[in-house]
Every structure is written in C-alpha cells, then in structure tokens.
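Continuing the batch. This is chain 6 of the set; chains 1 through 5 are on the previous pages. Same settings as before, nothing changed between runs. Recording input and output for traceability.
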Amino acid sequence: MQAAAGDRLRVRGHIVGQSERIGEIVEVRGAGGEPPYLVRFDDGHTSLVFPGPDAVIEHSGKRGKKRPAEGRVTGAKRRAFMRGYLRDELVRFAARPARS
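Output for chain 6:
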C-alpha cells in the first residue's frame, strides 16, 4: 500500500451499523509512500495510522503522468510504427513490376 500527501484514506466500519471513516493523508512517515500515515479525518481528529485490510487509499490527481520505462514502446508508438511500416510495404508492393 502506497500513498502520498493529499490522498484520501477510507476505513470501513468494523461492526454492522458503524460508518466508515474518511480522512486526508497529511504526511507519509514511511519510506517510499509506505505506512504509517498521519491522517486528518473529516471530524477534525488527526491520527497516526497503519492501515489494515479494511482501508482503501484514493489517490489524488496531483501526481504526474506515469512515463513508460526507457526503451519501452507504448501502444500508441507501436501503432504509429506499424501504420508507417504497412504504408511503406504497400508502396513497395504497388511499385514492383507486374509478373507476366
């Protein structure tokens, strides 16, 4: 489980009828986005949390777009390459002399 400051933490209720707790992660104290998290819950309470299996992290949209690893070809690049390759092959096929 990894998070960043600004992400939301939802913790489901432990018993029937107990509402879920929702809070904003204010600070990540673990290495690489790992727990524990300092969370400010909607009721104003701030707590150090080690999320369990009943917790879900909702990532905020503030993070940058993930980039593919170096040398890796994305789907869009692959499609563009194939379109160009097929177009070139079609031109070569059309330009070759006809068989008799």
